[in-house]
Design goal:
The chain is an alpha+beta fold and 148 residues long. Helix content is 24%, strand content 35%. It is built from 3 helices and 8 strands. The radius of gyration is 15 Å and the shape is globular.
Length: 148
């Protein structure tokens, strides 16, 4: 499943996610963050209910996901995930740009996996912490400030 076909993006509030889609999203996140990355962590952190969820499908199949969480006057992007077959084809960049457009002008925070910090830097993020361990995966806090 390469990103040659047009991805279909849809935003959902938690209460508007149909149960079968919610199951698919949670299974998708678990497959990537827990199984693929061998990082047993608590995915169900109580933040999904306040988040906006971006679901990306290609040919009907779930290809990407992220969530936006309002946090102290800024927006936090989390759980950014792309199916392995679509990685390296610009889908994550499209997803991030779609997220920025959702709240234009907002300061955006992210807890990035450390190896992805150079990618996030190309989107305007700057590191604001040292590298730290998050359940066995090196992470770094980054912020993208916009406006004057």
């Amino acid at each position: 499943m390469l990103v040659k076909r047009q991805p279909i993006c849809a935003w959902y509030r938690f209460d508007d996610i149909p149960a079968p889609l919610l199951y698919d999203v949670l299974r998708f996140r678990q497959a990537i963050f827990v199984v693929e990355q061998a990082s047993p962590y608590e995915d169900l952190d109580g933040k999904d209910q306040a988040a906006e969820h971006l679901v990306v499908r290609i040919d009907g199949a779930l290809a990407g996901y992220l969530r936006l969480i309002p946090e102290n006057g800024r927006t936090r992007i989390g759980r950014v995930a792309v199916v392995p077959a679509c990685r390296g084809h610009g889908l994550a960049r499209r997803m991030m740009e779609t997220a920025f457009a959702r709240h234009p002008g907002a300061t955006v925070a992210i807890s990035a996996q450390a190896y992805l910090a150079p990618f996030y830097a190309t989107l305007g993020f700057t590191a604001v912490s040292s590298e730290y361990d998050d359940t066995g995966v090196p992470h770094i806090d980054m912020v993208r400030a916009t406006g004057p």
